Amino acid sequence: MQLNLPAYPVKVRGGRTGEKEIWDAFRRKYVRLTPEEWVRQHFLHFLCQSKHYPVSLVAVEKSLTIQGRQRRFDAVVFKGGTPAVLMEFKAPEVKLTQAVFDQVALYNFALHADYLIISNGLSHYCCKMDYPNNRWYFLKDIPDFDHL
Question: Residue 97: what are its φ and ψ, rounded to 5°?
C-alpha cells in the first residue's frame, strides 16, 4: 500500500502459517505483516533515515500498566534515558480521530514523553507537551532528533 512516507528496502517473507511477515529492524525479528505494522515500519524508518533518530533508542510494542490495566504502546523514542516521543500507529484506512489522540495521551500519563505522534501512514500529527500549563501544541513538522 502506498503511504505518505518515503519508501525503504522492505524485507517480506511468507510466515509459517502462510501469513506474510516483515523484518522489524527495531525488534530484530520478523513480525506478522498487518496494515498497522506496514505503517509502523515505514514511519520508524522515516524517523531514523530522515530525522536522524537512532535505531538503538527506539522501543517497539512494550507493555505498561495504566490504572491497573496492562496496555501496549506502539513505539517510544528515548533520549537521555527517558521517553521523549510516544507514538501510536493505525492502519491507513483508520481515521485519526480524537479517540486515537486520547489513546496516546492516556498512555502518556505513564510515560510523560515530551512529544506525541499519531499516524496512519497517510496523515501524521505531532504535538509537544507543555506540562507546566497542562497543554499541548501541534507542530507543523516532526522535529529532528537533535531538537527533541
Answer: -100, 180
